[in-house]
Amino acid sequence: MSEDGQLAALVDACHWIGARGWCPATGGNMSIRSSEQRCLISESGKDKGSLRVEDFLAVDIASNQVDDTRTPSAETGLHTLLYRSHPAVGAILHTHSVNATVLSRAELGPTLDLTGYEMQKSLTGVGSHLESVVIAIFENHQDIPTLAAQVAERHHRDPLRFGFLVRGHGLYCWGRDIQQARRHLEGLEFLFHCELQRRLLETK
User: Fold this and answer.
1) In a 3-state reduction of DSSP, which class is residue 114?
2) What CA–CA distance (Å, rounded) separates 71 from 93?
3) Distance between CA atoms of 16 and 34, rounded to whole angstroms?
4) Sign, CA torsion 9/47/99/92
5) Rounded to the nearest 10 degrees, how much is the dihedral formed by the CA atoms of 143, 187, 23, 20?
6) In this structure, are residues 32 and 7 in contact, taking their beta carbons and an 8 Å threshold?
7) In this structure, are residues 43 and 73 in contact, taking their beta carbons and an 8 Å threshold?
8) Which one of 25, 92, 150, 167 is most buried, counting C-beta atoms within 10 A?
């Protein structure tokens, strides 16, 4: 799909995400890889449910430089890190849903392990509910280079798949294109909701 087509699909995904309340109060950030050298990322402070094509800025993947007077997302460095670390990644969605945020705090360990759910097969490469889907959890940090360094170290040691959680913050997920990233987001959100409900029922 052309860059214009991918960007239009990303804007459509942002409206879909906004309608589900997964990015309240202008939170979250979204991007697509437009070439080997650059990506297009959402402008800072914009409501994700009403984004337009014009609200995305070109960013150099290697340097994080922006040739624009507007400000890209404060978390641009995490997007460019993922594009550098995963050459096959073509789109990244970062959301702040209630389920992802609460579950990232309810799980005290460094990973969230999911198994037994049929919807795990919505994630590329997972063929059975019997497999274990491991989602890394990183401690929240306001200094994005520090957080990016932690993500890079973890990925080098044990490559990340599908996405990761930032504790008390939200979810980053990705795919080879916006369609796959959107499927991964929907699948992970369903799994997070199921896992959170299961844990709540176990405490009763």
Assistant:
1) strand
2) 18
3) 21
4) positive
5) -170
6) yes
7) yes
8) 92
Strands 163-166 and 133-138: parallel
Q: Render the burial of 154-172: b for 16+ CB within 10 Å, e for the rest.
A: bbeeeebbbbbbbbebbbb
Residues in the chain: 204
- What is the distance between the alpha carbons of residues 22 and 119, in angstroms, rounded to a whole number? 19
Set out the domains of the chain in order of their start, with CATH numbers: 3-202 (3.40.225.10)
Rg (CA), the chain: 16
- Angle at alpha carbon of residue 180, lines to 94 and 68, rounded to 5°: 50
Distance CA 100, CA 136 (A): 12
pLDDT in tens, 49-106: 999 999 999 999 999 999 888 888 889 999 999 999 999 999 999 999 999 999 999 9
Are 90 and 177 in contact by the 8 Å Cβ rule? The answer is yes
Q: With bands split at pLDDT 50, 70 and 90, how would you rate the model's confidence at 178?
A: very high
User: Which residues, in sequence order, are CB contacts of 22 under 8 Å at separation 6+?
Assistant: 28, 95, 96, 97, 185, 189
